[in-house]
Structures are given as structure tokens and as C-alpha cells.
Design goal:
This protein is of the alpha+beta class and about 350 residues long. The protein is built from ten helices and nine strands. The protein folds into two domains: about 120 residues, Phosphorylase Kinase, domain 1; about 220 residues, Alpha-Beta Complex (Aminoglycoside 3'-phosphotransferase, Chain: A, domain 2), CATH 3.90.1200.10. Helix content is about 40%, strand content about 10%. A hairpin with a 7-residue loop joins β1 and β2.
Length: about 350
């Protein structure tokens, strides 16, 4: 069995999410040199936001990303911004696919879209691909390489990269806290807590100082591409929709919210979405210490950023559950997300209690 056997693969396109090849083909011919050859289209199942497709011909494979159908929140699913950010960042942060083309003519497939290089490799989701075995030493190296990839992003000179204008920057922490508190309150259903104690604690404990750098804001293992020949090596970072000028510890806090370690309680283990439980993986506290040692960052107030990450995730989960609760979706996977919201707030309160 070759290592490429474990490479991530797209599947059949979901019903109702097909691409209109009649209108797309002329654009592909003109901008990407498809020479009239109609590509085979498959779709990636990962992610719950933008739709991602693989377009394949005998001599070409590319990735197309587009916004989902339907009404979109202001500023969400901005394909042009995502394309331009990656295009500018690629020369100074090589863990990105090449950007091949962007189209803002929504009449072609019904929405703005862009096309990029396909990175062939392994994407670690809830578990490593079946049959792929890594030793504890390899797992630890994969883990530290992943954190190093985040650190490298945080150390990019965004002024030199021409990205100083992508976001406001200063005041980011307060904007995030205010914004997620508002989103949680707006999405609240009768069967979840008001979470006033958590929101009030976050507002009362805003850091005095903030650092502004490039942040990814969804830096998880299932957004990384691993080398087929050496699965401890990161060759790509995907899904830049939420990237901005933000605070590096906020980025780290978001990552830790998804980080389920082997000795966590049963609720955390049942909801794990990445292989952070493997023997050799760092624990959350070890991740924080590793980040501090490599960057010299003061992490004495890390509790604030961990609570923020968990609360933000609670708000995201609640927004998804709100749609189910109000019958805007019938996806049965969303039925019990109200309980997960309770659990995440419990984790927030537990950290807050330890600070008293």
C-alpha cells in the first residue's frame, strides 16, 4: 500500500449543489486553458460553510471554491477577499495552494468563485485514514509541526505582504468579544442558558494589551494537508475564509477549543473532530507552553483566550442549532447541539472558576 492511498479524495456532488458546466466551461476554457475538455466534477464533504469541488481532466486537476446557495450574512463567504488574501500571502507563507483564477460574475454558476491549485496529500479528520499508523514520536512531530505552521503565519510581516488593509486590526479583541456575545444572544433558544456570567466575565477581563498579526481563525488539523510520503510534514493550510488581522492568542484560543485530548471527559471525546487524542499529541497546556517557548509570548492570561475560544464555539454551535430549532434545516445531526452548547459553557465556567 503506497502512502498516496491515504490522500484525501473528493466524492460525488451532493444533490442540489451541482455546478452548471454549460456556463462554467467557457470560463474554464478562457482562463484556465481547459481547451473545451469537460471536467469530471467531485465535491469535498469536509466543512460546513463554502462549497469545494475538484475539477479533473486527463491532464489537469484544480479546486473550485464557491459560496453556498441562499441568503448570506453581510461579509460572509467573500470569495474575492479569500482569493486576494491567499494570492498576496503565498510569496511569504508557502503553505498555500497557487491561486489560478477568480470570477465575480455571479451569472456563471450563481455566485462568485475562485479556482486554485489542488494540493495532493493527507487531511487528518476525526481520525487518521484507516491503515495509516504513526508512532508516538511521529505524532508528536506532526503536532509540533502544526503549531510551528501557525507560529510562522503569526510572524509574517503583513505590511510587506501588502495585507495591512484587509481588516481594522487594532481593537480586534473587543470587537470579537462584543460580536460573539451579540451573535450568541441573537441565536439563543429557550433550552440553552443566557450565558450572561460568561459574557460578563469576558467583557470584564479584556486584556490591556493586544498584538496584531495575521491570524487564520480556523487553524485545525482538518484544515491542514500532510505530505503523502512523510505525514508528519505540513504541506498546506486550507480554508482562509476567517483569516484577518487579529490577536495571535485569540487564534490559539480558537484552536484549543477544538483540541480534545485523550484524558478529556466522555462528552469531549464523543464530539472530537480531529486526531488530537493520539498517543504523542501535546495536551492543551503543553500546546500553550510550546507556543510560549517558541515565540516568547506572555501566556499568563491564557485563561481569557481559552474561555473566548470555547464561548465562540458555543455561539457557532448555537447558530447552527437555531436553524434546526426553527425548522430552517432538518439535518438530524443538529438535533442535540443545544446540549453541546450547555457543555461548552460548562467548560467556560470551569476555567473562570479556577481564576478566582
Amino acid at each position: 500500500m503506497t502512502q498516496s492511498t491515504f490522500n484525501d479524495k473528493a466524492k460525488a456532488v451532493r444533490q442540489g449543489e451541482e455546478l452548471n458546466l454549460d456556463t462554467l466551461q467557457p470560463w474554464l476554457n478562457e482562463h484556465l486553458g481547459f481547451a473545451g475538455i469537460t471536467p469530471a466534477v467531485t465535491q469535498y464533504s469536509g466543512g460546513a460553510s463554502n462549497w469545494t469541488y475538484c475539477l479533473s481532466t486527463p491532464d489537469k486537476e484544480v479546486i473550485l471554491r464557491r459560496a453556498p446557495a441562499g441568503t448570506k450574512a453581510k461579509g460572509a463567504h467573500d470569495m474575492g477577499r479569500e482569493y486576494r488574501l491567499q494570492h498576496a500571502l503565498k510569496p511569504v507563507y508557502p503553505l498555500l495552494p497557487d491561486m489560478l483564477g477568480h470570477c465575480d460574475n455571479e451569472s456563471i454558476i450563481g455566485t462568485e468563485f475562485y479556482v486554485m491549485q489542488k494540493l495532493n496529500g493527507i487531511i487528518p479528520r476525526s481520525n487518521l485514514p484507516r491503515g495509516l499508523q504513526l508512532s508516538p514520536e511521529q505524532v508528536r512531530l506532526l503536532c509540533t509541526n502544526a503549531i510551528d505552521s501557525m507560529i510562522s503565519l503569526h510572524q509574517v510581516d503583513y505590511h510587506k505582504a501588502g495585507l495591512a488593509g484587509i481588516a481594522k486590526g487594532e481593537g480586534y479583541v473587543k470587537r470579537q468579544i462584543d460580536g460573539w456575545c451579540q451573535r450568541y444572544t441573537k441565536a439563543k433558544t429557550w433550552n440553552v442558558p443566557a450565558a450572561n456570567n460568561v459574557m460578563n466575565w469576558l467583557k470584564a477581563n479584556l486584556p490591556v494589551h493586544e498584538t496584531i498579526c495575521l491570524t487564520h481563525n480556523d487553524f485545525r488539523f482538518d484544515n491542514l494537508v500532510l505530505d503523502s510520503d512523510d505525514p508528519t510534514r505540513i504541506i498546506g493550510v486550507l480554508d482562509w475564509e476567517l483569516a484577518t488581522l487579529g490577536d495571535p492568542l485569540m487564534d490559539l484560543g480558537n484552536t484549543l477549543a477544538y483540541w480534545v485530548q485523550a484524558d478529556d471527559d466522555i462528552v469531549a471525546r464523543k464530539t472530537r473532530r480531529q486526531p488530537t487524542h493520539l498517543d504523542g499529541m501535546l495536551t492543551r497546556s503543553e500546546v500553550v507552553q510550546y507556543y510560549a517557548d517558541k515565540t516568547g509570548t506572555d501566556v499568563s492570561n491564557m485563561a481569557f483566550y481559552e474561555v473566548y475560544g470555547l464561548f465562540r464555539l458555543a455561539a457557532i454551535v448555537l447558530q447552527i442549532y437555531y436553524r434546526y430549532h426553527h425548522k430552517q434545516t432538518t439535518n438530524p445531526a443538529f438535533k442535540h447541539l443545544w446540549f453541546f452548547t450547555h457543555y461548552l459553557l460548562h467548560r467556560c465556567r470551569k476555567i473562570i472558576k479556577q481564576q478566582r
